[in-house]
Amino acid sequence: MVDREGLAEFLRRRREALQPEDVGLTRGPRRRTEGLRREEVAALCHMSTDYYARLERATGPHPSEQMIAAIAQGLHLTLDERDHVFRLAGHHPPLRNSASEHISPGMLRILDRLTDTPAEIVTELGETLRQTPLGVAVLGDAAHRTGPARSLGYRWFTEPAARAAYSPDEQRQLSRVYASGLRELVALRGPQSRAAAMVALLEDNPLFREMWDAHEVGARPTEVKRFHHPSVGALELHCQTLLDPDQSHRLLVYTAEPGTDTHEKLQLLAVLGAEAFTT
Fold this sequence. Notes:
The protein is α+β, with helices and mostly antiparallel strands and 279 residues long. 46% of the residues lie in helices and 12% in strands. It folds into two domains: 4-88, 434 Repressor (Amino-terminal Domain); 105-276, Beta-Lactamase.
């Protein structure tokens, strides 16, 4: 059963405790609000201001699990806080496992500060959960993808366009990397895991079958990512990874050496924005 008063109080307290800089927003010179404004939280949660305000006033509808998950992410809740708000809303908290898409507040804070850097947060299956604006411009917008195609490893084997930006040598190496990574995940998570289900979806794919039958483990991508961008051409980016061991999420940060052609192209993409990436 939903605890409307408890939910309203918890949401209000969490909103008031957050500052604009905590969630990647700019603090205006005339700001008088304690914490975030309701409309700011509503935007972070991808819902209407009226809907969120009614929850804080304990007059709103019974929020769905999807709505509570969005609120938990928008308010940058910890896992314990996320579970608490689910219970207040009358729902069972999601399981804490590798399939969780709830990003930790610490990782979100880092991503929010990478405003001029291509970066993304991905699951262990390569599903993009969040991108910086320049990450969208460089790598494409992942928000529209659904189902298995959310995984870069799945798209790599099933969509020729995912491989087209890379040289034949790079394609071969990355094919080994994705097959090897899936094999390691199946061994780690078990035959009932999402990784095993993805293998079943790919088993009739000739390229995947060739890589899978090699039974290779330990293949790793190179630190330097070389590919052809549809608008600015060849890019050479260094990829650094930050791991959240509790959620098995990875923050991937892409940088270019100052003074290089790629560095100048990133500056151009920062101006062009997401429309620079076209298929």
